[in-house]
Amino acid sequence: MTKSIYNLQGREFIVVGGGGYIGSHVCKMIDDNSGTPITFDNFSAGHKHAVKWGQYVDVDLRDRKATHAAFQKHKNVKTVIHLASSIEVGIGEKQPAEFYDNNVTGALNLLMAMRETDADRLIFSSTCATYGETTNMPLLETEPQNPFSVYGKTKLAIEGMIQSFHKAYGLNYVTLRYFNASGADDSGEIGEEHNPETHLIPIALEAAAGRRPRMKIFGTDYGTPDGTCIRDYIHVNDIALAHIKSEQAFDNGLSNAEVNIGTGVGISNLEILQTIERVTGKPVPYDAAPRRDGDLTQLYADGTRAKELLEFMPQHSNLENIIKTAWNFHRQKWDL
Ligand code: UFG
After folding, report:
1. Angle at 202 (CA atoms; ends 181, 47), nearest 5 degrees
2. Domains: count for the chain
3. 35 lies in a domain?
4. Residue nearest to atom 27 of ligand 1 (CA)
5. pTM of the complete model beyond 0.70
6. Whose CA is nearest to atom 26 of ligand 1?
7. Per the domain annotation, does 166 fall within a domain?
8. Strand pairing category for 230-231 and 256-261
C-alpha cells in the first residue's frame, strides 16, 4: 500500500482512461493522497466497475464536441492525465486507421479542449515502443525514436503534438514512457483485465490456473542467455507513483520532460514462467512457438532521468511481488 506520498488535498485530476488497468491504479493513488480523480472514459476497453474512486464521465475523445463539453464542465481542473488509447500491438498492424483515429485524433481533441480551460498540465502515457530496434541497453531517453509498430508510431505522433503545444501555447507536460506494466494493487480489487488478453503474465497465470490448457512462448532462439525475449516489468503501482511524482515535479517548476518509467532490470520470458511456478506452486504448461511479429529482443530502461527530474524510484517492482499481486487479483476474479 502506498499512502501519503504527496498531499493532493483540494486538487482534482481529469484521468482519461481511468477505467483501464493503469488508470484505475492512478485514480486509487490520487485518492490515497487526498486528491479527487474524475475519470473520462468511453469504456471500450476500460471497465465501469474499475472506477471506484471519484466520478466518471462517459466520453469518447474522437467526438470533438463531446470532449469539449466534458472539459468545459470541469474547466477549473489544472492537471490532466491521459492514458486512454488502443494498445494491442498486433491489432494495430491490421487496423492502423482505427489506431490513428483513436490515439492521435483523440489526443488532438483532448489538447484542443484543454486549451479552453484552466488545464495547463498534462501527464501523458507513452511507451518504450516509441524507440526503434537497438542494442544500447539500458535505454536512454536520448535514443533515436524509430518505432516500427503502428502502436509506437501513434504514441510518437502524440509526443510530437504535445511538444508543439508546449512550445507554442505554454502547455506543461511530462511524457512517461512506460516499460512493461504488470502486477496489481495489494487489495486485489483492481488489476489487469484486457479482452482479448495478449500479455505474458496474465496469460501464464491463466495457464497455471488451468484456465487454458497450454501457452506459447514466442521465440526461443533469441541471442539472450536462455533464448527468450527480455523485458523490464514495472509494477502498476510504481507507474501510478510516477504520475504523483510528476505532479510534484510540476509544483517544483518542471515544465516539460520525456521520462522512461522502468526498473532497469531485464527479465526473460522463461524467468517469468519460473517465478510464476514458484509463487503459485503450479506448473505453467507451455510450447516453444515461432517469434511473434514486431517483438524486439530486449528492452530495459535507464532510470536516471526519472530519478533526477521526478525523484522517482520504483518501490513495488521486485518480480516476486509483481507475480504475487497479479496472482492475488486473478484468483479473486476467477474465484479460485
Ligand atoms: N509472450 C509470449 N507468449 C504470450 C504472450 C507474450 O511468449 O502468450 C512474449 C512476447 O513475445 C514478448 C514477451 O512475452 O517476448 C512480452 O510480451 P507482452 O505482450 O506481455 O508485452 P510487450 O513487451 O509485447 O508489450 C508491452 C506493452 C505494450 C508496449 C510494449 C513495448 O504491453 O503496450 O511493451 O515493447 F508497446
Report:
1. 75
2. 1
3. yes
4. 180
5. yes
6. 180
7. yes
8. unpaired
